[in-house]
Task: inverse folding
């Protein structure tokens, strides 16, 4: 029943957007107002904040299960602290109290599992499918199946390389910008240390190959590297976004190269593994160490690593997409158009800042 109402509304929305010419625009939107900023309180804290409301109006009365919007979330896995925060953001947002039934699937970083999950969501006739795609390519067939079934698909976090008519919209971090910000930060850091013209040997621990977070961060950093003829990328290998693999790859880098100046870790957890490998090899890293190391995400444990003097900098990627997707669904339910591509504003942090104070304010 819900689905029929929705497709009529979507049909109307599509017609309206065709007339106005603004639907399906790929103009990036800034959605920082759409969801809690990185520094707001954790969603978990919010949900426990008003227990009285529940006792007066039990969830079952507030919304009969017929009224609940059923959302299937095809999650990547549980490979990192970022991912854990992202899962928590969805689970605490898509609750029955908020009018939803969430069907959550953890694909264990395998695309075939995500495709299976999406097919099962289609079979269960959910109202919306949300996907954080493991990799960018290979989604046309299953998205077409969802479209034929009349189920809107929302992409969150990572991107898909598919025709934009196959999804409603995407919300996530600007990965190319994150990579460029990291390169720009490194150039300034080396300059400030009087090493602006020195030959700089760099290695990169890449994320899951083909994931847009990997593709974008690699490309963004490469854009800045191209501006510095004295920077040399010695090696790049995937650490699959996990601490264990990051450590393993860093161990092999340290065996192959004895003159590494900089480690780029495409997420915090791989940096944590790399820091262990560097220490085990009898070297040091961080602002006072032999090796400069920085990473992406900026989860709380990255703040601890910076405060401990092991990590130089962390480039933020905000995982709190639950409230953002909730807002998108609410708009679609009302027949409103949504911006096709929605980037979240992100910052960076390094050891020149008051990290204890910043960490205390962060939600993840
Ligand atoms: O950086 C990493 C996670 O897609 C932005 O995936 C996300 C990345 C994040 O495993 O920690």
Result:
């Amino acid at each position: 029943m819900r689905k029929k109402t929705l497709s009529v509304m979507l049909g109307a929305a599509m017609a309206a957007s065709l007339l106005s010419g603004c639907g399906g625009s790929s103009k990036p939107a800034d959605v920082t107002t759409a969801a809690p900023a990185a520094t707001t309180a954790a969603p978990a804290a919010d949900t426990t904040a008003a227990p009285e409301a529940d006792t007066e109006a039990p969830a079952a009365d507030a919304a009969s299960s017929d009224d609940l919007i059923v959302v299937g979330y095809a999650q990547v896995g549980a490979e990192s602290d970022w991912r854990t925060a992202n899962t928590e953001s969805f689970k605490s947002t898509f609750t029955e109290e908020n009018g939803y039934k969430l069907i959550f699937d953890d694909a264990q970083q395998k695309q075939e599992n995500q495709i299976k999950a999406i097919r099962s969501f289609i079979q269960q006739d959910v109202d919306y499918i949300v996907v954080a795609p493991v990799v960018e390519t290979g989604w046309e067939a299953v998205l077409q199946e969802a479209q034929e079934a009349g189920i809107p698909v929302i992409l969150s976090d990572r991107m898909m390389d598919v025709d934009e008519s196959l999804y409603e919209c995407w919300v996530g971090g600007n990965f190319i910008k994150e990579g460029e910000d990291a390169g720009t930060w490194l150039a300034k850091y080396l300059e400030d240390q009087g090493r602006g013209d020195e030959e700089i040997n760099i290695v990169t621990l890449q994320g899951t190959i083909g994931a847009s977070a990997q593709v974008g961060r690699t490309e963004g950093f490469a854009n800045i590297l191209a501006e510095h003829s004295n920077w040399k990328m010695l090696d790049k290998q995937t650490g699959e976004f996990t601490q264990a693999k990051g450590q393993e790859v860093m161990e092999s880098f340290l065996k192959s190269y004895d003159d590494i100046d900089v480690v780029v870790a495409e997420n915090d957890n791989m940096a944590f593994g790399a820091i262990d490998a560097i220490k085990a090899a009898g070297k040091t890293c961080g602002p006072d160490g032999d090796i400069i190391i920085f990473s992406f995400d900026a989860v709380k444990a990255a703040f601890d690593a910076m405060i401990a003097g092991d990590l130089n900098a962390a480039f933020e990627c905000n995982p709190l997409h639950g409230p953002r997707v909730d807002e998108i669904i609410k708009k679609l339910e009302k027949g409103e158009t949504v911006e096709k591509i929605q980037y979240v504003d992100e910052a960076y942090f390094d050891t020149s800042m008051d990290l204890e104070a910043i960490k205390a304010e962060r939600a993840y």
Remarks:
- The two ends are 38 Å apart (CA to CA).
